Amino acid sequence: MKDNRLVDIKDLRVHFPVFGGVLSKKVAVVKAVDGISFSILKKQTVGLVGESGCGKTTVGRAMISILKYVSPDVEVTGNINYYFDGKSVDFVKLRSKTMQKYRSKVQMIFQDPFASLNPRMTVAQIISEPLQIHTKMSNSEMQDRVGWLLEKVGLRPEQARRYPHEFSGGQRQRIGIARALATNPELIICDEPVSALDVSIQAQVINLMMDLQDEFNLSYLFIAHDLSIVEHISDQIVVMYLGNVVEWGSADQVYYSPKHPYSRALLSAVPLPDPTRKDKYRIVLKGDIPSPMAKPSGCAFRNRCPIAKPDCANDIPELVDTGDSQMVACPYWEERF
Fold it and tell me: Of 96, 199, 327, 330, whose CB count within 10 A is highest?
């Protein structure tokens, strides 16, 4: 198992300090990610799901080590161990200069294809930029590589001379995928890559990503809130709530047999394709998701949980194996409601 692992995340915490007052002292801490652990194997897709604000995107940005550039005061602790060429590399401890030789192995596809592409650069310049940084290709070699990548994502090589505003949303996301593929990465972090696209285009992009995974032996961290899409593309699913992992298992286990009360509520909200069916039980959670600056003690979900007990306020529940390696962070997961 160890030899097949691409990345191990252990007790990852990402805290954003909040400053206030006349002297700009630290007055609070946003615990965006509060001690999560999971692994991604080679050629595997792990889906990361949860409500908005649960810390999904922060996990992805921590894994590619760009949080310091977004927020210089961020506090990142724990371990993000990648296994490249038989060596273990911890991205949390690497400095910027040492990071550069590994950065080409981990790439990211961003959520909004309208904002993630520089409008002043041509498609050729956008895709060739990582090649200029991480390779020693000549201009003619980069030009050939750009044309080849565009064909791989379903576009024409001659479209490399155009600018992003000349493309549709689906085509722009294909350009973003081509840019991510440029340096032959081992892992691509997909931050809700289809949420900004029409439903008819979503399926095309998802199928493209699955074909590319087979061809280039890629691993994906697929961040999304649409569970039906996550189930379709993922091998494993990790469910997050307010900075913590509450459930982790195979896609079939989590989607068809969720164990944690939050996972069950999340799955019950998936729309039914047949409007005549009335037999699906809906779980409506009470209250709003708490602020990550004032998380409840113990289990963060206890204020909304239908099976919460008084002792849920004492300790953060650990992940326990419910059978067949389906992990759930709830000691009362067998209770029904």
Answer: 330
Which segments of 2-94 does DSSP mark as H helices, in order? Answer: 56-63, 67-70
What distance in Å separates the CA atoms of residue 221 and residue 146, rounded to the nearest whole number? 24
Q: How far apart are CA 31 and CA 300, in angstroms?
A: 12
Helix, strand or coil for residue 322?
A: coil
* Residues 173/110, Cβ–Cβ less than 8 Å: no
Measure the CA angle with vertex 83, ends 77 and 87; round to 5°: 105
DSSP classification of residue 196: T
How many Cβ atoms from other residues are within 10 Å of residue 73's Cβ? 11
Mean pLDDT by 10 residues, the chain (337 residues): 83 93 85 94 96 92 91 94 91 85 92 90 95 91 96 95 94 95 96 87 92 96 90 95 95 93 87 63 78 88 91 91 92 87
Helix (H) / strand (E) element for 124: namely helix 123-134
**What's the pLDDT score for residue 286?**
80
Find, among 27, 67, 33, 57, the residue nearest to 190 by Cα: 57
Q: CB–CB of 243/32 below 8 Å?
A: yes
Are the C-beta atoms of 23 and 89 separated by less than 8 Å?
A: no
What are the structure tokens assigned to 35, written together?
């001690």
Closest C-alpha among 119, 89, 106, 112 to residue 182: 106
Of the candidates 236, 168, 161, 254, the residue with the CA atom closest to the CA atom of residue 205: 168
Give the distance, in angstroms, between the CA of residue 270 and the centroid of all CA atoms in the same chain: 20
pLDDT at 1: 46
Taking a C-beta distance cutoff of 8 angstroms, is the pair 85, 17 a contact? no
DSSP string of 204-227, one letter each residue: HHHHHHHHHHHHHT-EEEEE-S-H
Segment (H or E) for 27: strand 25-41
HSE-up of residue 135 (Cα within 13 Å, Cβ side)? 17
- What is d(CA 300, CA 307) in angstroms, rounded to the nearest whole number? 13
Q: Are 5 and 41 in contact (CB under 8 A)?
A: yes
